[in-house]
What does this fold into?
Amino acid sequence: MGILNVTPDSFSDGGAFLDTQVAIDHARQMLAAGATIIDVGGESTRPGAERVGLAEEVERVIPIVAALAADGVTVSVDTMRAQVACAALEAGARIINDVSGGLADPDMLGVVAQSRADFVLMHWRDHSTRFQATAHYDDVVAEVLGELLAQRDRALEAGLDSQRIILDPGLGFSKNWDHNWTLLRHLSEFQGLGHRVLVGASRKAFLGELLGGREPLGRDGATAAVSFWAALHDVWAVRTHDVTGQADAIAVARRLDREAPFRNGA
It folds into this structure.
């Protein structure tokens, strides 16, 4: 899943793809490099980010969704707003990627349930301006699993088919460095929930901390290592800025797995 941030303030590539044609060209480059899904986002969710207005988010996202969908691209839209999701679905998006898992907007689950779209449901506790204060757990794996399943149950009650739900443990969202590594070590438990799993580690701060404070653009190698790990655990997809590096890492994992199976829990 190639990340296409059409925002001025995303932590890694903010401002790089504000021009619609530049954004579309970058999406096509990611597809050529091996992406099978383009995830378009018009609102940054980096720590401390303030929310963008509805009209501005729509203006940033919908022209790109429409152009890519017209080319037959599988488009995901990264949004917490039901109105943006509705407009994106009308423009041809096939996946709604809601980092709040339906909690930020009470209308989101109903909008997705009435469509044929898949829904990425991420573990979430609060908005970006406050989520660092909520990173407290007695048992991070058990609590994230439990809260994620509660969010999943809300989606099922709203009418979403189980097969359309994709779960994301929410690395970096209401998690400290150690929490992220613990969740990655326990990917098999997320895989065991009976849904597809998405891992989003690309260039995140916990990788920079591991590498001595390295800046986001220097974290692609570490991201590829996480993608390799995710592939060994049969995750459905990784969400990434660097498609080529992740595709290479996944190809190596698949080749090794064919010769010497490395399965969940190994």
